[in-house]
UniProtKB/TrEMBL annotation:
InterPro entries with a match to the protein in the record: GntR_C, TF_FadR/GntR_C, Tscrpt_reg_HTH_GntR, WH-like_DNA-bd_sf, WH_DNA-bd_sf
Keywords from the UniProt entry: DNA-binding, Transcription, Transcription regulation
Chain intervals for the UniProt region annotation (Disordered): 1-21
Domain of life: Bacteria
Organism: Actinomadura montaniterrae
Organism phylogeny: Bacteria, Bacillati, Actinomycetota, Actinomycetes, Streptosporangiales
GO molecular function: DNA binding; DNA-binding transcription factor activity
Name this polypeptide is given: FadR family transcriptional regulator
Pfam families, per the entry: FCD, GntR
HTH gntR-type domain boundaries: 22-92
């Protein structure tokens, strides 16, 4: 494989991409357990359907079923049958969580550090470009998403409207490649499930950032928008760092 540009390019972020078939059931379980521990899914939330998880992680539905059985066995989710059924979050942390987080995060931490830096650079560019190009319709879409975020009654609702707000900012760039890059980075940093970690503490931290970003875009201040976005996206990084530290063995870097 080598360490040259071609070898490096073929391997870059491989651990954050589609899962390998050989151990997919276990890897899906590790990713979902980590996503739950991060707050990407809250207590009582229904996980995406088997079909949706299979599409998000690019694995078979059987691999997803195997992962959900593992999570149910460890007490993290409850499987409900019939209409309105599915896999529901039962606990944020269980006996298998520490090993899952080590596998999903700690063993790949160097890649995550690079991803954090890349995301800050890209999202700052997106915010700057949105401020320079947004029209009245774009600004209205951002304002509507912000109002819905402010009115969120649960962390799950806040998470949903956070995603919509940043999608509206990305669309305001008028560049489909930047929109696609925004979506891909969200998927990578969230371990494939395309959902930011959300607790009420994160909501309160994100709220002033969202207002400042929307205001900077509304007045066409690209420098301010870029600066705010770079600071704002560190919230997810911090959540991942705290979780990694929780499972890091004492004395390890």
């Amino acid at each position: 494989m080598g360490g040259g540009p071609e070898g490096r390019g073929s391997m870059e972020h491989e651990a954050l991409g589609p899962l390998r078939p050989a151990t997919t059931g276990e890897q899906v379980a590790h990713r979902l357990a980590t996503a739950i521990a991060l707050g990407e899914f809250s207590l009582g939330d229904r996980l995406p359907s088997e079909r949706d998880l299979a599409a998000l992680l690019q694995v078979s539905r059987e691999s997803v079923r195997a992962a959900l059985r593992r999570l149910a066995g460890s007490g993290l989710v409850e499987i409900r049958r019939g209409r309105g059924g599915g896999a529901f979050v039962r606990a944020e942390w269980g006996e298998a969580s520490e090993g899952a987080v080590r596998s999903a995060l700690l063993e790949r931490w160097t890649e995550f550090e690079e991803l954090f830096d890349y995301r800050r650079l890209v999202e700052s560019l997106i915010a700057r470009t949105a401020a320079e190009r947004a029209d009245d319709a774009d600004r209205a879409a951002i304002a509507e998403a912000l109002a819905r975020f402010d009115a969120a009654a649960t962390p799950g609702e806040a998470r949903e409207h956070d995603v919509r707000l940043h999608a509206a900012v990305a669309r305001a760039t008028r560049n489909a490649r930047l929109v696609g890059l925004h979506e891909r980075l969200l998927s990578e940093v969230s371990l494939g499930v395309s959902a930011e970690p959300y607790t009420w503490a994160i909501y309160e931290e994100a709220k002033p950032h969202h207002h400042a970003l929307a205001e900077a875009i509304a007045r066409g201040d690209g420098d301010a928008a870029a600066r705010i976005a770079g600071h704002h996206f560190a919230i997810t990084e911090d959540a991942l760092r705290r979780l990694a530290e929780r499972v890091r063995p004492p004395g390890t870097p």
